[in-house]
Specification:
Elements lengths: L3 H63 L14 H26 L1
Organism: Aliterella atlantica CENA595
Pfam families: DUF6825
Protein name: Thylakoid lumen protein
């Protein structure tokens, strides 16, 4: 290779080939990572959906197991709703009294 022009041509060609290969590898890697990310997200979504369905089924089974056998329509309330309301009112009253006691002791 005595001619510097031919040498420069082959050097440029080699540089272009190497840059092309590196660009191809980088693009392939990026697309591979994107594919893995997409697959992971789909798997997470599938697990999330399954978890929601399982919890909803469990809650429905728990609700249907605790409702009275005479209740046939879903709009009819369970028999212990009034007791639950009374318990909640009692807890609220206790909490109000505790808050009042805390306020009076801190002043």
């Amino acid at each position: 290779m005595t001619n510097p022009l031919i040498h420069a041509f082959f050097m440029g060609r080699a540089v272009a080939e190497i840059v092309n290969e590196q660009l191809e590898n980088a693009l392939t890697d990026a697309l591979s990572e994107l594919g893995k990310f997409d697959a992971e997200q789909r798997e997470r979504l599938r697990h999330f959906t399954q978890e929601v369905i399982d919890r909803a089924n469990h809650a429905a089974e728990t609700y249907s197991g605790s409702s009275s056998p005479t209740a046939t329509s879903p709009s009819s309330p369970p028999s212990d709703v009034q007791a639950t309301i009374d318990d909640l009112r009692a807890e609220i009253a206790l909490l109000r009294a505790e808050i009042q006691r805390h306020r009076s002791s801190s002043t």
